[in-house]
């Protein structure tokens, strides 16, 4: 595919970053069909143009980059998504992997790496920035695999645990006994292979990973 045939939407709430990205892409002959300064604009542009690619920041007003991607995918768009962010933390990598995002770059990456990412993504492969520690990517993938073993009931309980609900509150909300909730919690701890089996370890883990758990 020629660069001029690759239509791209870009979105970032930092004007200088947005302009710099646009200028680099345009100078390299990519077809930038729209720019958004917030998540809502990005979503509207994606749904209007159905571009080949969308390069999105995570932290944007109105909708985050992750929310834009989730909503766009619900509309069955064929666009491939690349995150361009400052965030290196595992919770963001986890969320990106859970949403099956095509690429994840850091704003510190060179433009040549952006091009490498674009080329890789267009081959239907996933690309993560070389700035990420490989071990962290493997670790996140393993966590996601473990979470796939949870039953629908366990996932429901885990989502409520992530909202800091007590076993009593969960039991009341789901119309089940506290004993059943505690059984679910024990099973979740076992399936996620948590070393410390104290129930607080699940509460703390779920809170730290609440954004990922939302995608279950």
What would a concise description of this structure say?
The protein contains eleven helices and six strands. By secondary structure, the chain is of the alpha/beta class. The chain has a six-stranded parallel sheet with strand order 2-1-3-4-5-6, with helices on both faces.
Salient structural properties:
216 residues, Rossmann fold, 6-stranded parallel sheet, elongated, 12% strand, 6 strands, Arc Repressor Mutant, subunit A, alpha/beta
Task: Provide an overview of this structure.
It is a single chain. With 216 residues, this protein is of the alpha/beta class. The protein folds into two domains: 3-136, Response regulator (Rossmann fold, 3-Layer(aba) Sandwich); 149-213, Winged helix-like DNA-binding domain superfamily/Winged helix DNA-binding domain (Arc Repressor Mutant, subunit A, Orthogonal Bundle), CATH 1.10.10. The chain is built from eleven helices and six strands. It has helices spanning 15-27, 39-49, 65-74, 90-98, 111-122, 134-147, 152-162, 167-174, 178-191, 199-208, 210-213, and strands at residues 7-11, 31-36, 53-56, 80-85, 103-106, 127-128. It is elongated and about 60 Å long. The protein starts with 6 loop residues before the first strand and ends with a helix. The model has no long low-confidence stretch (mean pLDDT 91). This is Response regulator transcription factor. Keywords: DNA-binding, Phosphoprotein, Transcription, Transcription regulation. Residues 7-122 form the Response regulatory domain. The modification 4-aspartylphosphate is found at residue 57.
């Amino acid at each position: 595919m020629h660069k001029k045939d690759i239509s791209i939407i870009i979105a970032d709430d930092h004007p200088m970053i947005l302009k710099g990205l646009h200028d680099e892409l345009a100078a390299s002959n990519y077809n930038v069909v729209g720019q958004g300064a917030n998540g809502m604009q990005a979503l509207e542009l994606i749904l209007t143009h159905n571009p080949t690619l969308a390069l999105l920041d995570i932290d944007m007003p109105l909708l985050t980059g992750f929310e834009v991607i989730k909503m766009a995918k619900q509309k069955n768009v064929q666009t491939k998504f690349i995150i361009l962010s400052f965030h290196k933390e595992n919770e963001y990598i986890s969320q990106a992997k859970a949403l099956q995002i095509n690429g994840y770059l850091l704003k510190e990456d060179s433009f040549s790496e952006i091009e490498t990412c674009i080329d890789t993504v267009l081959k239907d492969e996933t690309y993560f920035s070389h700035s990420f520690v490989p071990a962290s990517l493997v670790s996140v993938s393993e966590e996601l695999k473990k979470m796939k073993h949870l039953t629908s009931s366990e996932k429901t309980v885990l989502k409520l645990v992530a909202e800091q609900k007590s076993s009593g509150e969960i039991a009341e909300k789901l119309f089940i006994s506290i004993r059943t909730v505690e059984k679910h919690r024990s099973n979740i701890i076992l399936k996620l292979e948590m070393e410390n089996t104290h129930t607080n370890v699940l509460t703390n883990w779920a809170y730290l990973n609440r954004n990922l758990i939302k995608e279950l």
